Amino acid sequence: MASIDLATASGLLSDYFATDIPAILLSAPGIGKSDSIKAAATEWLMSTGAFSSPAEIGETKHGKKGFIDIRAGLRDPVDFSGLPDTSGEFTVWKKPDFLPRVERDGEFGVICFDEFTNAGLSTQGALYQLFLDRALNDYVLPPGWRLVAAGNRMADKAAAQRLSTAFVNRVAVLEIAASVAAWIAWARRSGIHPAIIDCIQWSENRGESILHVMPKNDGEAFPSPRAWAAVSRFISRARFDNWRAGIAGLIGDKAAAVFMGFVEIWRTMPKLETVFADPNGAPVPLEHGGRFAVACAVSRELTAANIAKGFAYLERVGAEFKAMAVADAMARDPDLKDTDSFVSYSLANQRRAL
Fold first, then answer.
1. Strand (E) positions, 61-185?
2. pLDDT (tens digit, 9 = 90+) per residue, 156-177?
3. DSSP assignment of 138-166
4. CA angle, corner 183, sides to 173 and 71, nearest 5?
5. Is-contact 225 312, C-beta < 8 A?
């Protein structure tokens, strides 16, 4: 099965929700499956017209409006099939309270069985009927509710169990891989520290990606999209003297050493105020890493008002770095393509290519 990135998976999930097809997302730990599912669920739920804003979706004291998160790996089969009630002439099974009810949880929603592969086969089997027939014993899933699952793969040593062919044949299976481009786009939207974004991009350009690297030994910290988000929170508050040790505890020694080496370069960049105030006189870093870092920093700050000065400075940084910075800036703000500076740059590149 070919792997896809989270952005692609999220778009597919929205379509699966619209067509009432259950799905399961599989990947190594730390990719961001849970967040992607919530984003896709929010997109689909907003399209139903049942919610006026994304803030309405989620758990409330009166119910779980629109989204229910169940950790399948922490459940036993009886949790889903329901306890038997033998008080009457016939044995009946009580309906699990965590399953959605329209009067409490709303007409539309998504129920996510996270950590699905951590559940044993008997627990998985208890959910077959729900995923195929939208029912469990006497319980029937409301028509406006959708099903999705997520889990790790057995190959990643994440306590995952195998999935039976009986379950796999009931759902769409999406295998997810980390994508630097997709992660960077998410990181920029999500306020991840710019030094981390620049370092990830720098390492990728050098052919030594450190976004997601599975460990060789059990119990060893390793870099992942989830771990880098934790690094961002850590360096935003922690004292600089504690960075190396603290970061190593989150992503491992090797990735921490790469990041700290990049930070030393990143911290010596010329100030952006100087760059935009005097693009022809501001200092240009000598080493490759410094030029990469300052190009990334300038790219983030380009606007229609300062693009001419930014382009003038990037010309001094080097054609390779300018091309990267321009591509990143245009992806962030497509309206910059309408500026005279970009049109001139584009025409000049076309002439050079002829």
1. 63-65, 67-71, 84-85, 92-93, 109-114, 135-136, 139-140, 145-152, 172-175
2. 766 667 888 888 888 999 999 9
3. TEE--TTEEEEEEEE-GGGTSSPPPPPHH
4. 45
5. no
**Spatial separation of the C-alpha atoms in residues 270 and 276, rounded to whole Å:** 11
Tell me the pLDDT tens digit for each residue of 2-12: 789 888 999 99
User: Nearest CA to 214 among 149, 261, 153, 151?
Assistant: 153
Provide Rg for the chain, Cα atoms. 25
Residues 6+ apart with CB under 8 A from 153: 26, 27, 28, 117, 160, 175
Beta carbons of 296 and 328 less than 8 angstroms apart? yes
User: First CA to last CA across the chain, in angstroms?
Assistant: 41
| Nearest-angstrom CA–CA distance, 51 and 44 | 10
**Adjacent-strand bridge partners of 172:** 23
Q: Which residues pair with residue 85 across a beta bridge?
A: 92
Neighbouring-strand partners of residue 145: 109
Residue written as tokens 């240009």?
284
Residue 170 identity (one-letter amino acid): R
Helix, strand, coil % in the chain, rounded to nearest 5: 55, 10, 35
Q: Are 329 and 311 spatial neighbours (Cβ–Cβ below 8 Å)?
A: no
- The rounded distance, in Å, linking the Cα atoms of 195 and 240 is 13
CB-based contacts of 221: which residues, under 8 Å, 6+ apart?
Answer: 215, 227, 248, 249, 250, 251, 252
Regarding pTM above 0.70, the answer is yes
Print burial letters for 266-280: b (CB count within 10 Å at least 16), e (below 16). beebbebeebbeebe
Average pLDDT over residues 333-354: 83
- And the tokens for 104? 């409490």
Classify domain 6-175 at the CATH topology level. Rossmann fold (3.40.50)
